[in-house]
Write a structure and sequence with these properties.
364 residues, alpha+beta, D-amino Acid Aminotransferase, Chain A, domain 1, 11 helices, homodimer, Dna Ligase, domain 1, 4-stranded parallel β-sheet, 3 domains
Chain lengths: 364, 364
């Protein structure tokens, strides 16, 4: 698919599936480059709607609406990984869809994703499929305890998963995840969590942002720091893994690879935790902290344009504003060097990502 | 007016008069902060329309349309200084208009502006009013030759002005500017042109961006460089002038002051050339080259929010892409550290500002 079309011209329209804050920030990046966006989202109060040329408010299964959407855009991309595979396939018969829908098919299924990663010789936690309750004891043999049982599909921010510790009843865990086809993963005694946000262009250029160190709270990203407190060796290995995955997917756009750094004798091992086939929260710091943002890299890639070479502006700390923390925006506006971002969401629900703040400290 | 209303809340709507690239970049800055924009412009293909919540395509004299616009927004600002005074006055009876319309009344008239500046004890070129052809010889006595005859109103990018050198027939010059009420200004033997982009908040906080050095070509800004090659004394004087003007106007928002640096014995004198009561082309570098942009400062000011303290990311060179220079965007995309901006304009006319490029070189 990637070879079939010419780079977009300024004034062309990028179709974005999904209208959350990631779609909003993608649209803002496209606007800088003279490109228009058309956002397709079933949710009438999508934050991305406020900043784009055209919107479609329809279900992802509405083929008439998808047909009209395809006719209005030059290329299609998405801001979240749970776009129905049928939607992506339907659209890819009409317009280029980037990254290619086969990537979605893999990353929407934790078992396929882990199998894909392991098949490339890249380390992961020990894992085993759990299709039925009966399969759980054998899977526990393979992983040991503690282990995390996760539904294969549609999990995010800690939803659809539960931990099996010593004494946890497997049957109760199985009910906890709703009796869905699942994957059991060994608990990883990690020292820190890192991620690499990488971009790959249509002609295979790859640019990685600096490795980011992440801290979660209640399974939701709370803080990202750059540079990560890791050795050069670990940093190089993390970037190599991200680049290997991007190549293996024949990926076009930005992807994020979440990894664990695990102590291993004198050194460290890097294990892949999760792949996000899209721009990612742990790359938000690039908006204020680098010469080019993850959002612009993604837009450039799907437009068929060359990627930029990111230069970091200093030491970075990115804080998510979750739920009513966003009410503190006034405080952040007065902090020197703080970049304040609010996503234009109407409701301030607990656990909802409402905005973020980037603190940039110039390096001496 | 400025004391009468509360700071905007996220989700509020800013009304922008004018839909060019400045309105577009203001809207993008508002979006970062969770604020919506409604752009009012008579021109159906306004670049700002692509990135906002709502648009009004009507003449500035359409009071019904202005009424509806006012009803939809929480505050009104503008992206260009030639908004009809009647429009601003009409709106200010309905919503806060920032900066206050009295600033427009002064800056729309070169004679009033120069008189205002001189009245503050700030240096300008020698000038004299020219209301009729008959007044021109006496005015020339006051200024000497060469001198520049400029219409008092509606001039920009060199339009509506002509130079009287030795031998230029005053009558021909008068016809050249269309026989409009004009001002004659002595030619200034400047060493360099600089500008200060300053922001003032509703409660009087003032933040100046670093002094910018500007080069024009055919009366259109071509290159801005930061820092300007000036002494600390000249830099401090330039910022003092900008701050003095902002105070004197009781200004709210971003204004730009264009100045000449003139050799004066062992030192230099700073003379004000022109005031732009809006974000300004010579401040575009702040999008990529500073921790906060002129556009965000303006939005914060009109929203009643605190200003940021700008930190520059390095040495900057900003190049305007004028007319068919924008066709070279592909070249700029591959230059490391270059921020590329295209304004989404349909027609690539000669002399039209189509985009800009910012080159940031980290300082050692």
């Amino acid at each position: 698919m990637t070879a079939k079309f010419e780079p977009l011209k300024p004034g062309a329209t990028i179709g974005i599936l999904g209208g959350g804050q990631l779609g909003r920030m993608l649209a803002l990046a496209a606007a800088r480059l003279g490109l228009k966006c058309h956002v397709f989202s079933p949710s009438p109060d999508s934050p991305a709607f406020d900043v784009v040329h055209r919107v479609s408010v329809h279900d992802y299964t509405d083929t008439d609406a998808l047909d009209r959407f395809a006719a209005d855009v030059d290329v299609v991309t998405y801001e979240f990984e749970n776009v129905p595979a049928e939607t992506a396939t339907f659209l890819s018969a009409r317009r280029p869809v980037l990254p290619d829908p086969h990537v979605l098919a893999i990353t929407q299924d934790r078992l396929r994703e882990k199998t894909f990663v392991a098949g490339l010789g890249i380390g992961t936690a020990r894992f085993a499929p759990v299709d039925t309750a009966d399969a759980l004891p054998a899977a526990l043999e393979a992983t040991g305890r503690p282990a995390v049982l996760k539904t294969r599909r549609f999990g995010y921010d800690g939803k659809g998963q539960t931990t099996l510790r010593d004494g946890t009843d497997p049957q109760a865990a199985w009910l906890e995840v709703g009796g869905q086809p699942s994957i059991l993963e060994a608990f990883v005694p990690f020292e820190r969590e890192i991620s690499v946000v990488a971009a790959r262009s249509r002609d295979g250029q790859i640019e990685c942002f600096d490795v980011t160190e992440n801290q979660h709270r209640d399974h939701i990203l709370k803080v990202s720091k750059v540079p990560a407190a890791i050795s050069d060796t670990v940093g190089a290995e993390a970037r190599r893994i991200a680049a290997t995955l991007a190549e293996a997917f024949d990926y076009v756009g930005v992807l994020a690879v979440e990894m664990f750094v695990v102590p291993d004798g004198a050194g460290h091992t890097v294990l892949v935790n999760e792949i996000a086939p899209r721009v990612h929260n742990s790359g938000h710091w690039t908006l204020d902290g680098a010469s080019i943002s993850q959002f612009e890299q993604h837009i450039r890639a799907v437009a068929g344009w060359p990627l930029g070479k990111p230069v970091r502006h200093g030491r970075i700390e990115m804080l998510n504003l979750i739920g009513d923390e966003a009410a503190d925006y006034g405080k952040w506006l007065t902090v020197p060097g703080a970049g304040v971002h609010l996503y234009g969401k109407a409701g301030m629900r607990p656990g909802r990502k409402m905005g973020h703040v980037t603190l940039v400290t110039p390096e001496e």
